Amino acid sequence: MARKAPRKTRSKAGSALPAALTGNPILLALAAVAVVFAIGLGVSLVTGGGDKASPLQASVPVKPPIPPAPPAAMVNAAPTAAPAPPAAPPAVEPAPQPSVKPDPPMTAPEPERPASAQTPEAPPAAPPPKTVVAMLPPPVPPVAVQPPSGNAALWRRNAVPVSVPSGKPVIAIVIDDMGLDRKRSTRMASLPGPLTLSWLPYAHDLPAQARAARANGHELMLHMPMEPSVKADPGPSALLVGLDKGEVLRRFRGALDSFDGYVGVNNHMGSRFTADREALAPVLAELHRRGLLWLDSRTTPKSAGIGIAQELRMPFAGRDIFLDNTAEVAAIRKQLAQVEQVAKRQGFGIAIGHPHDATIEALASWVPDVQKRGFVLVPVSAVVRAHHAGG
Question: Chain-centre distance of CA 358, in angstroms?
Fold first, then answer.
């Protein structure tokens, strides 16, 4: 009888537990969860996977057992899990579930390891060194081309450097026939400048005179004798229309080699020669070949010089005013005023004079004050560079 009494109490307790659970769905669910975790914990302990949290994580998603099918099985397990119900309310296990679920996404970065394993394939990328080597050759060709372009810019290399404020009209004063009268040429070269001094190729001791003038800050040109249309002697080795092309070039090249450091050539006399296009063309072609500029003195309105220079795309300029057709100081000052008007109108003015006493005196008083009147005195190369530098 003593053995039967405990059995009855067990059956009563067992029957009372299902009634309480079925009467409360929430407790039923909690009990089911507790059982599942108890089973999972037992399995993990049996298999010895204390550090393997992945089985628990894998078992968590198995919530399908929660439907009403399991109650019968849970009744049989109730006797062994009877102490579990009191532990079910504090079931802290559900709380870890949220912390357990984020863990699977944390494993997602693992696929990046293969990507990092592929990075060794990137180092073989030989393109970087190839591109660096390929980029080095391009700068070389321009350097190789510089010598001829430097020769073509001889007039630029021999030019007197000047700085011209933007918007200021500029005036270039060219003095022809330099070198014959050494005393007057020296006086002219002693004036403040920069002036542009054009030297006759048959002047005495030409290289020394030209160097002294350049040392004083003046620009140099060659004043090439050419045939006039009137009966006048242009001087020895002048360029004449009646000469064949070979002789014209021989004389011209001889004059070009008489001294150096000049920026270009203008014509001495030459009203007939410059009007003859066929005679003048090879002369300007030689100038262009040497990288020198052409200043047309415009001793005739029929000169072909500007047109040929434009066709050759070479640097050029043309005279605007003659200063001393009347070699008197007052007349020359009037001509200087005319140059100023031309410069105001077109932005620049080019005047040609000669080493006369009156011209030297007029320029001696005009040059120091020209800037006060809003003009800039420049060498002829500055006018060419700004307006007619050619191609």
Answer: 52
